[in-house]
Amino acid sequence: MHSWSTLTAAFALLANGVAAQNMLRFACSQLVVDRVDPLVNPGVRYTPHLHQIVGGNSFNLTMEPVEYDLVKRSTCTSCSFPQDLSNYWTAVMFFKHKNGSYHRVPQVGNGGPQGQLINKGGLDIYYIPSGKTTAFRPGFRMLAGNAANTEDSKVSKANICHRCWTSTNEGNFIGGAPCTGSDTVGIPQEPRCKMIRQTIIFPHCWDGKNLDTPDHKSHVAYGQGSGATGGGACPSSHPVKLPQLMYELMWNVTNFSDKNMWPTSGPAFVYSMNLGGSAAHGDYVFGWEGDTLQRAMDKGCNLNRACPAAGLTYQPPEVYNACNIKQQAPEPVDGCKFSSPPPSQTSERDEC
């Protein structure tokens, strides 16, 4: 198992073209911001909360496992690698103004020692191998986190966390490994934060049989080890080691640093469920072309670079930024004043 110190060393050596740990780390811009969820609420328009979605443009209200072939149906992807037609989505962060209005928090790419990843909204995706790694299969899907959770103590900080980023320069790497040190499950509620980094680490062990389960969780499990290391040994119930999937989001809260804007009670930053960091969650539907992901893991493909040995090509930001779809649940998503929160429920709007 690779330790985070190894990964940190890899980042530090990138400038010299040397990496001690190979992993895919690439940008995905927003495909759409929409109140749909084909994993948890298939076929439902105007689901209980708002999501930002990235990846292949075949994303739809209903996506039956295996039957709905993302690769064949997609004509573009909002991610760096055109071979990745998967879909990835998370809840949206809002700033709650003291006047009762909600404002969607903008996002930026997270550069760090790798160099800038250019995202138009969206998030950065990691696939981190460790030892013998078996890629996801067509039809595979899973969920990390719980959108209804309200207690930080019920969430492992090693898997879901937030970090207060006191610099507006996303190219400055702040702190150590994701979900360590001063990172918190809760969303930092401090005016000194210029950006808030959100990390979601998915289970890396699979039962080897089920592509999905009714709760979208039971077929996978967290193995030994913690954090963004690729994962350690898997339990006998889930013996197949998968690539460790990690989402990384940078919420730019710079425009909300004036404490006079903040509510007199309760949190200023919430997710679209009107809940805090304990309710953070991520959804995943696999959609890589053929065996491209398996070859990328086997061949040690690295970061967001083309990898001919695995058939991976790279498309520039102006190409993946242009891959968008229309909302399937049309509504304003940047902020409104609502007769009752949260900002993405079916309550009537007073002002939009």
Features:
Podospora anserina S mat+ genomic DNA chromosome 6, supercontig 1; mainly beta; disordered C terminus; 6-stranded antiparallel sheet; signal; disordered N terminus; 352 residues
Summarize the structure in words.
The strands form five sheets. Strands 1, 7, 8, 10, 11 and 15 form a six-stranded antiparallel beta sheet that branches. This protein has one domain (22-351). The longest helix is centred in the N-terminal third of the chain and has 10 residues, at 4-13. It is built from four helices and 19 strands. With 352 residues, the chain is mainly β.
Order of helices and strands: HEEEHEEEEEEEEEEEEEEHHEE
Shape: globular
What's the number of extended β-strand segments? 19
* Average residue-wise pLDDT: 88
Number of domains: 1
Low-confidence runs of at least 5 consecutive residues: 1-19, 337-352
- The percentage helix is under 10%
What's the N-to-C terminus distance? 51 Å
Rounded to an integer in angstroms, the radius of gyration calculated over CA atoms is: 19 Å
Number of helices: 4
Largest sheet: 6 strands, antiparallel
Please state the oligomeric state of the protein chains shown: single chain
Q: Classify the beta-strand content into a percent band.
A: 15-25%
Q: What structural class should be given to the helix and strand makeup?
A: mainly beta
Signal peptide: 1-20
Domain DUF1996: 37-288
Organism: Podospora anserina (strain S / ATCC MYA-4624 / DSM 980 / FGSC 10383)
Keywords: Signal
